[in-house]
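TA notes. Do not distribute before section.
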Amino acid sequence: MTLLLVILGACKKSTAPDGGSHQNDKIQLAVTAPETGYIYLDGAYTGVQAPGNIAVTAGKHIVGVALRNSWQYLRKESNVTAAATLNFTTADQPAPKVWKALWIGLYETKGISATGDCSTHFSQAELNMGYDFFQWSIQQHFEKYAYNTIHWDVTRKDITQAVPLTRGANGNFTVEPSTIAALMPEIQPGAYDCVFVFWRESEGACSFKSNYFGLAWTNPLKENIKTGYVTVKFDAGASLADRINYYKTTDPGVWLHEWLHTVGENFYQDKGLQLPAKAGDGLVVHAAEMYNYVFPWMDWYRDFMAGSVVNASGSPRYLGIGPEAFLGCSVREKATNTCKD
Protein backbone atom coordinates (compact mmCIF):
# COMPACT_ATOMS: atom_id res chain seq x y z
CA MET A 1 0.00 0.00 0.00
CA THR A 2 1.17 3.49 -0.73
CA LEU A 3 0.50 6.75 1.05
CA LEU A 4 0.11 10.53 0.61
CA LEU A 5 1.16 14.24 0.34
CA VAL A 6 0.79 17.69 -1.41
CA ILE A 7 -0.36 20.90 0.31
CA LEU A 8 -2.61 23.64 -0.93
CA GLY A 9 -0.89 26.98 -0.38
CA ALA A 10 -2.38 29.78 1.67
CA CYS A 11 -5.48 31.20 0.03
CA LYS A 12 -4.81 33.94 -2.50
CA LYS A 13 -6.36 37.31 -1.78
CA SER A 14 -8.72 36.86 -4.70
CA THR A 15 -10.21 33.69 -3.25
CA ALA A 16 -9.83 33.98 0.53
CA PRO A 17 -13.12 33.36 2.32
CA ASP A 18 -12.19 35.60 5.26
CA GLY A 19 -11.42 39.29 5.30
CA GLY A 20 -7.86 39.13 6.63
CA SER A 21 -5.89 42.40 6.85
CA HIS A 22 -7.32 43.76 3.60
CA GLN A 23 -10.99 43.77 4.51
CA ASN A 24 -11.43 47.18 2.91
CA ASP A 25 -10.60 45.62 -0.47
CA LYS A 26 -13.46 43.15 -0.18
CA ILE A 27 -16.97 43.22 -1.59
CA GLN A 28 -19.87 42.02 0.52
CA LEU A 29 -22.08 39.26 -0.86
CA ALA A 30 -25.34 38.36 0.85
CA VAL A 31 -26.22 34.70 0.34
CA THR A 32 -29.71 33.24 0.72
CA ALA A 33 -30.90 29.67 0.19
CA PRO A 34 -34.13 27.63 0.44
CA GLU A 35 -33.01 26.39 3.87
CA THR A 36 -30.10 26.79 6.26
CA GLY A 37 -26.86 25.84 4.54
CA TYR A 38 -23.09 26.08 4.66
CA ILE A 39 -21.46 28.63 2.35
CA TYR A 40 -18.46 27.72 0.19
CA LEU A 41 -16.28 30.13 -1.78
CA ASP A 42 -14.21 28.76 -4.65
CA GLY A 43 -14.48 25.27 -3.19
CA ALA A 44 -13.48 26.19 0.37
CA TYR A 45 -15.86 26.18 3.32
CA THR A 46 -16.15 29.70 4.73
CA GLY A 47 -17.51 28.88 8.17
CA VAL A 48 -20.53 31.07 7.40
CA GLN A 49 -24.09 29.76 7.24
CA ALA A 50 -26.76 30.87 4.79
CA PRO A 51 -28.53 33.18 5.05
CA GLY A 52 -25.35 35.11 5.68
CA ASN A 53 -22.72 37.44 4.28
CA ILE A 54 -19.25 36.73 2.91
CA ALA A 55 -16.54 39.12 1.75
CA VAL A 56 -14.78 38.53 -1.57
CA THR A 57 -12.51 40.43 -3.92
CA ALA A 58 -13.72 41.62 -7.29
CA GLY A 59 -13.57 38.97 -9.98
CA LYS A 60 -14.92 35.56 -10.90
CA HIS A 61 -15.92 33.26 -8.06
CA ILE A 62 -17.82 30.05 -7.45
CA VAL A 63 -20.19 30.36 -4.51
CA GLY A 64 -21.86 27.23 -3.17
CA VAL A 65 -24.33 26.36 -0.43
CA ALA A 66 -24.54 22.88 1.10
CA LEU A 67 -28.08 22.54 2.42
CA ARG A 68 -28.09 21.22 5.99
CA ASN A 69 -31.36 19.30 6.01
CA SER A 70 -31.85 18.11 2.43
CA TRP A 71 -28.16 17.31 1.85
CA GLN A 72 -28.06 19.03 -1.53
CA TYR A 73 -25.39 21.35 -2.95
CA LEU A 74 -26.26 24.50 -4.86
CA ARG A 75 -23.71 26.58 -6.77
CA LYS A 76 -23.39 29.75 -8.83
CA GLU A 77 -20.51 31.10 -10.88
CA SER A 78 -20.48 34.88 -10.56
CA ASN A 79 -18.33 37.78 -11.75
CA VAL A 80 -18.41 40.02 -8.70
CA THR A 81 -18.05 43.76 -9.34
CA ALA A 82 -20.13 45.27 -6.55
CA ALA A 83 -22.05 44.33 -3.43
CA ALA A 84 -24.93 42.03 -4.30
CA THR A 85 -27.30 39.34 -3.07
CA LEU A 86 -27.02 35.80 -4.38
CA ASN A 87 -30.37 34.05 -4.07
CA PHE A 88 -29.98 30.29 -4.40
CA THR A 89 -32.84 28.02 -5.45
CA THR A 90 -33.08 24.33 -6.18
CA ALA A 91 -32.53 25.22 -9.86
CA ASP A 92 -28.90 25.91 -8.88
CA GLN A 93 -28.24 22.24 -8.06
CA PRO A 94 -25.61 20.83 -10.44
CA ALA A 95 -25.85 17.41 -12.03
CA PRO A 96 -23.96 14.96 -9.80
CA LYS A 97 -20.68 13.45 -10.90
CA VAL A 98 -21.15 9.75 -11.64
CA TRP A 99 -18.75 7.39 -9.88
CA LYS A 100 -18.70 3.73 -10.88
CA ALA A 101 -18.30 0.88 -8.42
CA LEU A 102 -17.93 -2.85 -8.87
CA TRP A 103 -19.19 -4.87 -5.90
CA ILE A 104 -18.01 -8.48 -5.75
CA GLY A 105 -19.31 -11.12 -3.38
CA LEU A 106 -17.22 -14.24 -2.89
CA TYR A 107 -19.07 -17.53 -2.52
CA GLU A 108 -15.93 -19.36 -1.35
CA THR A 109 -12.61 -18.12 0.00
CA LYS A 110 -9.80 -20.61 0.61
CA GLY A 111 -6.46 -20.60 2.35
CA ILE A 112 -4.21 -22.35 4.84
CA SER A 113 -5.53 -21.64 8.32
CA ALA A 114 -4.34 -22.88 11.70
CA THR A 115 -6.29 -26.07 11.04
CA GLY A 116 -4.86 -26.58 7.55
CA ASP A 117 -6.39 -26.06 4.10
CA CYS A 118 -9.97 -24.91 4.42
CA SER A 119 -12.62 -22.63 2.99
CA THR A 120 -15.28 -20.21 4.16
CA HIS A 121 -18.53 -19.71 2.28
CA PHE A 122 -21.38 -17.27 1.80
CA SER A 123 -24.71 -18.42 0.38
CA GLN A 124 -26.55 -16.47 -2.31
CA ALA A 125 -28.91 -15.11 0.32
CA GLU A 126 -26.00 -13.99 2.51
CA LEU A 127 -24.26 -12.26 -0.38
CA ASN A 128 -27.52 -10.47 -1.09
CA MET A 129 -27.52 -9.23 2.52
CA GLY A 130 -23.94 -8.00 2.17
CA TYR A 131 -24.80 -6.18 -1.04
CA ASP A 132 -27.86 -4.57 0.54
CA PHE A 133 -25.65 -3.41 3.43
CA PHE A 134 -23.29 -1.79 0.90
CA GLN A 135 -26.14 -0.12 -1.01
CA TRP A 136 -27.55 1.19 2.27
CA SER A 137 -24.20 2.85 3.00
CA ILE A 138 -24.01 4.30 -0.51
CA GLN A 139 -27.30 6.08 0.07
CA GLN A 140 -26.83 7.00 3.72
CA HIS A 141 -23.15 7.97 3.64
CA PHE A 142 -21.30 8.04 0.31
CA GLU A 143 -23.82 10.20 -1.53
CA LYS A 144 -25.35 12.02 1.43
CA TYR A 145 -22.07 13.22 2.97
CA ALA A 146 -21.02 14.52 -0.46
CA TYR A 147 -24.23 16.58 -0.46
CA ASN A 148 -25.32 14.50 -3.44
CA THR A 149 -22.65 15.94 -5.71
CA ILE A 150 -21.78 12.36 -6.58
CA HIS A 151 -24.00 9.50 -7.70
CA TRP A 152 -22.74 5.94 -7.53
CA ASP A 153 -23.47 3.64 -10.46
CA VAL A 154 -22.96 0.19 -8.91
CA THR A 155 -22.43 -3.06 -10.79
CA ARG A 156 -22.51 -6.37 -8.94
CA LYS A 157 -20.58 -9.43 -10.17
CA ASP A 158 -20.15 -12.31 -7.72
CA ILE A 159 -17.41 -14.92 -8.09
CA THR A 160 -18.64 -18.51 -7.76
CA GLN A 161 -15.28 -20.30 -7.89
CA ALA A 162 -13.03 -20.58 -4.85
CA VAL A 163 -10.84 -17.47 -4.45
CA PRO A 164 -7.40 -18.02 -2.89
CA LEU A 165 -6.24 -15.83 -0.03
CA THR A 166 -2.78 -14.35 0.30
CA ARG A 167 -1.11 -14.43 3.70
CA GLY A 168 1.37 -11.65 4.34
CA ALA A 169 4.46 -11.58 6.52
CA ASN A 170 2.32 -10.07 9.30
CA GLY A 171 0.06 -13.12 9.21
CA ASN A 172 -2.94 -11.27 7.77
CA PHE A 173 -5.07 -12.96 5.12
CA THR A 174 -6.13 -10.76 2.22
CA VAL A 175 -7.84 -10.96 -1.14
CA GLU A 176 -5.31 -9.18 -3.32
CA PRO A 177 -6.29 -6.88 -6.21
CA SER A 178 -4.19 -8.99 -8.57
CA THR A 179 -6.14 -12.12 -7.58
CA ILE A 180 -9.48 -10.48 -8.36
CA ALA A 181 -8.20 -8.84 -11.54
CA ALA A 182 -7.01 -12.21 -12.83
CA LEU A 183 -10.52 -13.61 -12.34
CA MET A 184 -12.22 -10.53 -13.76
CA PRO A 185 -10.25 -9.15 -16.73
CA GLU A 186 -12.94 -6.50 -17.25
CA ILE A 187 -11.35 -4.59 -14.35
CA GLN A 188 -9.29 -2.20 -16.43
CA PRO A 189 -8.16 1.42 -15.96
CA GLY A 190 -11.14 3.66 -16.55
CA ALA A 191 -13.77 0.98 -15.99
CA TYR A 192 -14.44 1.66 -12.30
CA ASP A 193 -13.62 4.17 -9.59
CA CYS A 194 -13.52 1.51 -6.90
CA VAL A 195 -13.83 -2.27 -6.55
CA PHE A 196 -15.38 -3.59 -3.32
CA VAL A 197 -14.87 -7.25 -2.34
CA PHE A 198 -16.95 -8.94 0.38
CA TRP A 199 -15.92 -12.30 1.87
CA ARG A 200 -16.39 -14.43 4.97
CA GLU A 201 -13.78 -14.38 7.72
CA SER A 202 -14.60 -17.61 9.58
CA GLU A 203 -16.81 -20.66 9.29
CA GLY A 204 -16.75 -23.48 11.80
CA ALA A 205 -13.15 -24.50 12.49
CA CYS A 206 -11.90 -22.59 9.43
CA SER A 207 -10.73 -19.14 10.50
CA PHE A 208 -8.94 -16.41 8.57
CA LYS A 209 -9.08 -13.90 11.39
CA SER A 210 -6.68 -11.00 10.97
CA ASN A 211 -6.21 -7.67 12.73
CA TYR A 212 -8.43 -5.70 10.39
CA PHE A 213 -12.10 -5.49 9.38
CA GLY A 214 -11.63 -3.79 6.05
CA LEU A 215 -8.59 -2.94 3.95
CA ALA A 216 -8.11 -0.34 1.25
CA TRP A 217 -5.29 0.30 -1.19
CA THR A 218 -4.51 3.97 -0.66
CA ASN A 219 -3.05 5.16 -3.97
CA PRO A 220 -5.30 3.79 -6.73
CA LEU A 221 -3.53 5.49 -9.61
CA LYS A 222 -0.30 3.71 -8.65
CA GLU A 223 -1.95 0.28 -8.81
CA ASN A 224 -1.87 -1.79 -12.00
CA ILE A 225 -5.65 -1.65 -12.27
CA LYS A 226 -5.65 2.14 -11.59
CA THR A 227 -8.79 1.65 -9.56
CA GLY A 228 -9.68 2.06 -5.91
CA TYR A 229 -9.73 -1.31 -4.17
CA VAL A 230 -11.45 -2.27 -0.90
CA THR A 231 -11.87 -5.66 0.73
CA VAL A 232 -14.21 -6.27 3.68
CA LYS A 233 -13.56 -9.45 5.67
CA PHE A 234 -16.86 -9.98 7.45
CA ASP A 235 -17.34 -11.91 10.68
CA ALA A 236 -20.81 -13.34 10.03
CA GLY A 237 -21.10 -15.07 13.41
CA ALA A 238 -24.18 -17.24 13.88
CA SER A 239 -26.39 -14.87 11.85
CA LEU A 240 -25.15 -12.56 9.12
CA ALA A 241 -28.36 -10.53 9.31
CA ASP A 242 -27.86 -9.94 13.03
CA ARG A 243 -24.22 -8.93 12.52
CA ILE A 244 -25.10 -6.47 9.79
CA ASN A 245 -27.81 -4.91 11.95
CA TYR A 246 -25.30 -4.68 14.79
CA TYR A 247 -22.85 -2.74 12.64
CA LYS A 248 -25.59 -0.51 11.22
CA THR A 249 -26.42 0.67 14.72
CA THR A 250 -23.00 0.67 16.43
CA ASP A 251 -20.31 1.12 13.75
CA PRO A 252 -22.02 1.92 10.43
CA GLY A 253 -19.07 3.44 8.59
CA VAL A 254 -17.05 0.40 7.49
CA TRP A 255 -17.71 0.77 3.74
CA LEU A 256 -17.29 4.54 3.79
CA HIS A 257 -14.15 4.38 5.93
CA GLU A 258 -12.37 2.07 3.53
CA TRP A 259 -13.42 3.99 0.42
CA LEU A 260 -12.17 7.23 1.99
CA HIS A 261 -8.73 5.64 2.26
CA THR A 262 -8.71 5.26 -1.53
CA VAL A 263 -9.30 8.99 -2.14
CA GLY A 264 -8.29 10.66 1.13
CA GLU A 265 -4.67 9.55 1.41
CA ASN A 266 -3.27 10.61 -1.99
CA PHE A 267 -5.89 11.24 -4.66
CA TYR A 268 -7.31 14.59 -3.55
CA GLN A 269 -4.00 15.78 -2.11
CA ASP A 270 -2.42 15.22 -5.52
CA LYS A 271 -5.13 17.46 -6.98
CA GLY A 272 -4.07 20.30 -4.68
CA LEU A 273 -6.49 20.01 -1.78
CA GLN A 274 -5.34 20.22 1.82
CA LEU A 275 -6.75 17.42 3.90
CA PRO A 276 -6.18 16.68 7.60
CA ALA A 277 -2.76 15.59 8.81
CA LYS A 278 -1.68 11.98 9.04
CA ALA A 279 -2.30 9.97 12.17
CA GLY A 280 0.55 8.19 13.91
CA ASP A 281 0.19 5.19 11.60
CA GLY A 282 0.64 7.43 8.56
CA LEU A 283 -3.00 7.39 7.46
CA VAL A 284 -5.13 10.53 7.18
CA VAL A 285 -8.48 8.79 7.60
CA HIS A 286 -7.29 7.51 11.00
CA ALA A 287 -6.67 11.05 12.33
CA ALA A 288 -10.16 11.57 13.81
CA GLU A 289 -9.01 11.78 17.44
CA MET A 290 -6.34 14.34 16.53
CA TYR A 291 -9.23 16.63 15.56
CA ASN A 292 -11.35 15.75 18.62
CA TYR A 293 -13.83 13.43 16.91
CA VAL A 294 -15.07 10.33 18.71
CA PHE A 295 -16.14 6.79 17.82
CA PRO A 296 -17.95 5.72 15.67
CA TRP A 297 -16.46 8.62 13.69
CA MET A 298 -19.51 9.38 11.53
CA ASP A 299 -19.21 13.13 12.21
CA TRP A 300 -15.57 12.85 11.19
CA TYR A 301 -16.41 11.21 7.87
CA ARG A 302 -19.11 13.83 7.24
CA ASP A 303 -16.81 16.79 7.90
CA PHE A 304 -13.88 15.11 6.11
CA MET A 305 -16.03 14.83 2.98
CA ALA A 306 -17.55 18.29 3.45
CA GLY A 307 -14.16 19.96 3.78
CA SER A 308 -15.22 21.40 7.13
CA VAL A 309 -12.72 19.86 9.57
CA VAL A 310 -11.50 22.76 11.72
CA ASN A 311 -7.79 23.41 11.30
CA ALA A 312 -6.65 24.57 14.74
CA SER A 313 -3.06 24.99 13.56
CA GLY A 314 -3.63 27.81 11.07
CA SER A 315 -4.38 28.27 7.39
CA PRO A 316 -6.52 27.15 5.68
CA ARG A 317 -9.24 27.42 8.30
CA TYR A 318 -10.91 24.17 7.23
CA LEU A 319 -9.59 20.87 5.87
CA GLY A 320 -11.09 18.09 3.79
CA ILE A 321 -12.51 17.41 0.34
CA GLY A 322 -15.68 19.48 -0.17
CA PRO A 323 -18.62 19.31 -2.60
CA GLU A 324 -16.88 21.29 -5.34
CA ALA A 325 -14.03 18.77 -5.48
CA PHE A 326 -16.49 15.89 -5.80
CA LEU A 327 -17.87 17.54 -8.93
CA GLY A 328 -14.40 17.31 -10.46
CA CYS A 329 -12.55 14.32 -11.88
CA SER A 330 -13.18 10.87 -10.47
CA VAL A 331 -10.52 8.18 -10.12
CA ARG A 332 -11.41 6.43 -13.36
CA GLU A 333 -11.32 9.72 -15.30
CA LYS A 334 -7.89 10.53 -13.90
CA ALA A 335 -6.74 7.00 -14.76
CA THR A 336 -7.51 7.60 -18.44
CA ASN A 337 -6.81 11.36 -18.57
CA THR A 338 -10.34 12.07 -19.74
CA CYS A 339 -10.94 15.26 -17.73
CA LYS A 340 -9.08 18.48 -17.14
CA ASP A 341 -8.89 19.14 -13.39
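Switch to the second chain here.
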Amino acid sequence: MSKVDPIVELHPWLALTPGQALLEWEQQQMDRLVADIFGFHALQLGLPELDALRANRMQHRWLALDTAYQHWSPPAELAPLVHGPVEIDSSVLCGAPFSLRCDFESLPFPSNSLDLVVLPHALELARDPHHTLREVERVLVPEGRVVIAGFNPASLWGLWQRMGRWGVKPALVLPQGEFIAYWRLRDWLRLLDLEVEGGCFGCYRPMVRQASSWDRLRWMEHAGDRWWPVLGAVYFVVAVKRVRGMHLVGKVKKARMHAAAAPAVVVQRGTTRNVSKHE
Protein backbone atom coordinates (compact mmCIF):
# COMPACT_ATOMS: atom_id res chain seq x y z
CA MET A 1 0.00 0.00 0.00
CA SER A 2 2.19 2.81 -1.26
CA LYS A 3 1.33 6.45 -0.71
CA VAL A 4 2.88 9.73 -1.77
CA ASP A 5 3.47 12.26 1.03
CA PRO A 6 0.12 11.75 2.81
CA ILE A 7 1.47 13.27 6.02
CA VAL A 8 2.10 16.59 4.29
CA GLU A 9 -1.59 16.70 3.34
CA LEU A 10 -2.77 16.05 6.90
CA HIS A 11 -0.95 18.89 8.66
CA PRO A 12 -2.69 21.81 6.86
CA TRP A 13 -6.07 20.15 7.40
CA LEU A 14 -5.46 19.94 11.16
CA ALA A 15 -5.38 23.76 11.24
CA LEU A 16 -9.02 23.90 10.03
CA THR A 17 -11.98 23.90 12.41
CA PRO A 18 -12.73 20.14 12.03
CA GLY A 19 -9.02 19.37 12.44
CA GLN A 20 -8.77 21.35 15.66
CA ALA A 21 -11.92 19.67 16.99
CA LEU A 22 -10.44 16.29 16.06
CA LEU A 23 -7.22 17.00 17.97
CA GLU A 24 -9.15 18.18 21.02
CA TRP A 25 -11.37 15.08 21.10
CA GLU A 26 -8.48 12.69 20.45
CA GLN A 27 -6.38 14.31 23.16
CA GLN A 28 -9.17 13.70 25.68
CA GLN A 29 -9.50 10.07 24.62
CA MET A 30 -5.75 9.48 24.72
CA ASP A 31 -5.47 10.98 28.19
CA ARG A 32 -8.23 8.68 29.39
CA LEU A 33 -6.93 5.50 27.73
CA VAL A 34 -3.21 5.71 28.60
CA ALA A 35 -3.44 7.17 32.11
CA ASP A 36 -3.66 3.78 33.87
CA ILE A 37 -1.29 1.80 31.66
CA PHE A 38 1.82 1.05 33.69
CA GLY A 39 5.35 0.03 32.77
CA PHE A 40 8.66 1.67 31.94
CA HIS A 41 8.80 2.43 28.20
CA ALA A 42 6.17 4.07 25.96
CA LEU A 43 6.32 5.16 22.32
CA GLN A 44 4.13 7.40 20.15
CA LEU A 45 4.32 6.90 16.40
CA GLY A 46 3.58 10.02 14.36
CA LEU A 47 1.17 12.99 14.63
CA PRO A 48 3.37 15.38 16.66
CA GLU A 49 0.45 17.82 17.02
CA LEU A 50 -0.99 15.36 19.55
CA ASP A 51 0.74 14.76 22.90
CA ALA A 52 -0.59 11.24 23.25
CA LEU A 53 1.58 10.28 26.24
CA ARG A 54 1.18 13.36 28.43
CA ALA A 55 -1.19 11.61 30.87
CA ASN A 56 0.97 8.48 31.09
CA ARG A 57 3.38 8.11 33.99
CA MET A 58 6.04 5.87 32.48
CA GLN A 59 9.60 6.97 33.05
CA HIS A 60 10.74 6.68 29.41
CA ARG A 61 8.55 8.13 26.65
CA TRP A 62 9.42 8.84 23.03
CA LEU A 63 7.86 10.43 19.98
CA ALA A 64 8.92 8.69 16.76
CA LEU A 65 8.39 10.38 13.40
CA ASP A 66 8.45 8.68 10.04
CA THR A 67 11.16 9.72 7.60
CA ALA A 68 8.41 11.45 5.59
CA TYR A 69 8.44 14.21 8.23
CA GLN A 70 11.52 15.74 6.64
CA HIS A 71 10.19 19.31 6.75
CA TRP A 72 8.81 19.19 10.30
CA SER A 73 10.83 20.57 13.21
CA PRO A 74 10.11 19.46 16.79
CA PRO A 75 9.04 22.01 19.40
CA ALA A 76 11.83 23.60 21.40
CA GLU A 77 10.86 21.79 24.60
CA LEU A 78 11.47 18.39 23.00
CA ALA A 79 14.92 16.83 23.05
CA PRO A 80 16.99 16.83 19.81
CA LEU A 81 16.21 14.23 17.20
CA VAL A 82 18.29 11.08 17.23
CA HIS A 83 18.78 8.79 14.26
CA GLY A 84 20.48 5.69 15.62
CA PRO A 85 19.05 2.65 17.44
CA VAL A 86 17.74 3.44 20.90
CA GLU A 87 19.41 1.74 23.86
CA ILE A 88 16.61 1.13 26.34
CA ASP A 89 18.86 0.89 29.39
CA SER A 90 20.92 3.96 28.60
CA SER A 91 20.83 6.58 31.35
CA VAL A 92 20.99 9.27 28.67
CA LEU A 93 17.34 8.66 27.84
CA CYS A 94 16.09 9.36 31.35
CA GLY A 95 14.00 12.48 31.84
CA ALA A 96 12.50 14.47 28.98
CA PRO A 97 10.99 12.59 26.03
CA PHE A 98 13.13 12.20 22.92
CA SER A 99 12.05 12.48 19.29
CA LEU A 100 13.56 10.18 16.71
CA ARG A 101 13.20 9.73 12.98
CA CYS A 102 12.84 6.16 11.77
CA ASP A 103 10.91 3.95 9.38
CA PHE A 104 7.80 2.66 11.10
CA GLU A 105 8.37 -0.65 9.29
CA SER A 106 11.72 -1.01 11.10
CA LEU A 107 11.54 0.40 14.60
CA PRO A 108 14.95 0.88 16.32
CA PHE A 109 13.87 -0.91 19.50
CA PRO A 110 14.67 -4.47 20.66
CA SER A 111 11.98 -7.12 20.66
CA ASN A 112 9.82 -7.29 23.80
CA SER A 113 11.04 -3.93 25.08
CA LEU A 114 8.07 -1.49 25.10
CA ASP A 115 5.10 -1.52 27.45
CA LEU A 116 2.91 0.84 25.41
CA VAL A 117 2.81 1.93 21.76
CA VAL A 118 0.37 4.61 20.58
CA LEU A 119 -0.48 5.01 16.89
CA PRO A 120 -2.55 8.16 16.21
CA HIS A 121 -3.40 7.71 12.50
CA ALA A 122 -0.03 6.07 11.93
CA LEU A 123 -1.37 3.00 10.11
CA GLU A 124 -3.38 4.75 7.40
CA LEU A 125 -0.47 7.12 6.77
CA ALA A 126 2.16 4.35 6.76
CA ARG A 127 3.72 3.03 3.58
CA ASP A 128 3.00 -0.55 4.71
CA PRO A 129 0.41 -0.71 7.54
CA HIS A 130 0.66 -4.51 7.83
CA HIS A 131 4.41 -4.38 8.39
CA THR A 132 4.05 -1.45 10.78
CA LEU A 133 1.59 -3.40 12.91
CA ARG A 134 3.88 -6.43 12.90
CA GLU A 135 6.73 -4.22 14.12
CA VAL A 136 4.55 -2.91 16.92
CA GLU A 137 3.73 -6.48 17.98
CA ARG A 138 7.45 -7.34 17.91
CA VAL A 139 8.59 -4.52 20.20
CA LEU A 140 5.73 -4.92 22.71
CA VAL A 141 6.39 -6.91 25.86
CA PRO A 142 3.95 -9.72 26.72
CA GLU A 143 0.79 -8.08 28.12
CA GLY A 144 1.96 -4.78 26.61
CA ARG A 145 -0.69 -2.54 25.05
CA VAL A 146 -1.21 -0.71 21.78
CA VAL A 147 -3.63 2.20 21.33
CA ILE A 148 -4.67 2.93 17.73
CA ALA A 149 -6.63 5.91 16.40
CA GLY A 150 -7.94 5.78 12.85
CA PHE A 151 -10.35 7.46 10.44
CA ASN A 152 -13.55 5.50 9.93
CA PRO A 153 -14.40 5.02 6.22
CA ALA A 154 -18.03 4.26 7.18
CA SER A 155 -18.72 7.85 8.27
CA LEU A 156 -19.57 11.26 6.84
CA TRP A 157 -15.87 12.13 6.81
CA GLY A 158 -15.06 8.91 5.01
CA LEU A 159 -17.72 9.68 2.40
CA TRP A 160 -16.31 13.21 2.01
CA GLN A 161 -12.85 11.78 1.46
CA ARG A 162 -14.11 9.37 -1.21
CA MET A 163 -15.83 12.27 -2.98
CA GLY A 164 -12.39 13.80 -3.36
CA ARG A 165 -11.28 10.65 -5.16
CA TRP A 166 -14.29 10.93 -7.46
CA GLY A 167 -13.24 14.37 -8.65
CA VAL A 168 -15.12 16.69 -6.28
CA LYS A 169 -12.26 19.07 -5.56
CA PRO A 170 -13.82 21.04 -2.65
CA ALA A 171 -14.10 17.78 -0.70
CA LEU A 172 -10.40 17.04 -0.95
CA VAL A 173 -9.61 17.99 2.64
CA LEU A 174 -8.32 14.71 4.09
CA PRO A 175 -5.24 12.77 2.97
CA GLN A 176 -6.10 10.46 0.12
CA GLY A 177 -4.70 7.32 1.65
CA GLU A 178 -6.71 4.17 2.34
CA PHE A 179 -8.66 4.42 5.57
CA ILE A 180 -8.75 1.15 7.52
CA ALA A 181 -12.18 0.00 8.65
CA TYR A 182 -12.68 -0.78 12.33
CA TRP A 183 -13.62 -4.44 11.79
CA ARG A 184 -10.78 -4.92 9.33
CA LEU A 185 -8.31 -3.62 11.91
CA ARG A 186 -9.70 -6.02 14.51
CA ASP A 187 -9.00 -8.91 12.12
CA TRP A 188 -5.42 -7.73 11.65
CA LEU A 189 -4.92 -7.54 15.40
CA ARG A 190 -6.37 -11.00 15.94
CA LEU A 191 -3.92 -12.52 13.45
CA LEU A 192 -1.03 -11.05 15.48
CA ASP A 193 -2.38 -12.32 18.83
CA LEU A 194 -3.21 -8.77 19.85
CA GLU A 195 -6.44 -9.14 21.79
CA VAL A 196 -8.84 -6.20 21.54
CA GLU A 197 -9.53 -4.86 25.02
CA GLY A 198 -11.72 -1.85 24.26
CA GLY A 199 -12.57 0.91 21.82
CA CYS A 200 -14.79 3.89 21.09
CA PHE A 201 -16.04 6.13 18.27
CA GLY A 202 -16.41 9.91 18.03
CA CYS A 203 -16.65 13.05 15.83
CA TYR A 204 -20.11 12.69 14.24
CA ARG A 205 -20.53 16.17 12.74
CA PRO A 206 -20.09 16.64 8.98
CA MET A 207 -16.95 18.38 7.85
CA VAL A 208 -17.53 22.15 7.57
CA ARG A 209 -14.92 24.90 7.38
CA GLN A 210 -16.82 27.70 9.18
CA ALA A 211 -16.48 27.70 12.96
CA SER A 212 -20.02 29.05 13.40
CA SER A 213 -21.54 26.20 11.38
CA TRP A 214 -19.42 23.72 13.26
CA ASP A 215 -20.71 25.00 16.61
CA ARG A 216 -24.33 24.84 15.48
CA LEU A 217 -23.91 21.13 14.74
CA ARG A 218 -22.60 20.30 18.21
CA TRP A 219 -25.87 18.46 19.02
CA MET A 220 -24.83 15.71 16.61
CA GLU A 221 -22.06 14.60 18.95
CA HIS A 222 -24.51 13.59 21.69
CA ALA A 223 -27.03 12.15 19.25
CA GLY A 224 -24.42 10.18 17.33
CA ASP A 225 -22.87 8.73 20.47
CA ARG A 226 -26.32 7.40 21.42
CA TRP A 227 -28.00 6.50 18.13
CA TRP A 228 -25.30 5.75 15.53
CA PRO A 229 -22.03 5.18 17.44
CA VAL A 230 -20.28 3.04 14.81
CA LEU A 231 -20.62 5.88 12.26
CA GLY A 232 -18.22 8.19 14.09
CA ALA A 233 -15.51 9.76 11.93
CA VAL A 234 -12.74 8.47 14.20
CA TYR A 235 -12.31 5.29 16.23
CA PHE A 236 -9.97 4.14 19.00
CA VAL A 237 -8.88 0.56 19.59
CA VAL A 238 -6.95 -0.71 22.61
CA ALA A 239 -5.34 -4.15 22.29
CA VAL A 240 -3.08 -6.22 24.53
CA LYS A 241 -0.33 -8.59 23.39
CA ARG A 242 -1.09 -12.14 24.46
CA VAL A 243 1.60 -14.82 24.49
CA ARG A 244 0.19 -18.28 23.84
CA GLY A 245 1.59 -21.48 25.30
CA MET A 246 3.20 -20.00 28.41
CA HIS A 247 4.26 -22.56 31.08
CA LEU A 248 4.83 -22.31 34.79
CA VAL A 249 8.48 -22.52 35.80
CA GLY A 250 10.58 -22.64 38.95
CA LYS A 251 9.15 -22.77 42.47
CA VAL A 252 5.53 -22.14 41.40
CA LYS A 253 5.56 -25.16 39.10
CA LYS A 254 7.14 -27.44 41.75
CA ALA A 255 4.70 -26.31 44.42
CA ARG A 256 1.69 -27.10 42.22
CA MET A 257 3.14 -30.53 41.33
CA HIS A 258 3.61 -31.41 45.01
CA ALA A 259 0.09 -30.23 45.83
CA ALA A 260 -1.36 -32.41 43.09
CA ALA A 261 0.57 -35.49 44.28
CA ALA A 262 -0.29 -35.09 48.00
CA PRO A 263 -3.07 -37.35 49.41
CA ALA A 264 -6.37 -35.77 50.31
CA VAL A 265 -7.45 -35.53 53.97
CA VAL A 266 -10.98 -36.62 54.89
CA VAL A 267 -12.54 -35.84 58.27
CA GLN A 268 -14.96 -38.48 59.65
CA ARG A 269 -16.64 -37.73 63.00
CA GLY A 270 -13.58 -36.44 64.81
CA THR A 271 -11.04 -38.70 63.08
CA THR A 272 -8.96 -38.04 60.05
CA ARG A 273 -7.57 -40.36 57.43
CA ASN A 274 -5.55 -39.92 54.24
CA VAL A 275 -7.22 -40.92 50.99
CA SER A 276 -5.14 -41.59 47.91
CA LYS A 277 -6.33 -40.44 44.51
CA HIS A 278 -7.10 -44.04 43.50
CA GLU A 279 -9.59 -44.70 46.30
